[in-house]
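Lab channel / #folding
Pinned by the channel admin:
"Please post every new chain as: sequence first, then the structure tokens as a reply. Keep commentary short and put observations after the output so the thread stays searchable."

First post following the new format, from NK:
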Amino acid sequence: MDIVDKSWEVQKDIEERVAKVGKGKYGRVIKMARKPTNDEYIKTITITGIGLLLIGGLGFLIYLIWSGALGGIR
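Reply from TO:
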């Protein structure tokens, strides 16, 4: 068996494995999935970062209130 036949066998094996994934519960989602564009990726990173900062800031504010660091609350 030469290298071309072996590579076709490997390709066929991979395609059979992937076909099984596409028939399951999440098959439609996997088939529709695509790589995001650079613009989509940057927007996702920006929104995630803003959310992370807001949640972290809120958590730190709650910590300051509970530790009495803001003073005179009691």
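NK: Helices lie at 3-21, 27-32, 38-67.
TO: also worth noting, Residues 38-67 form the longest helix (30 residues).
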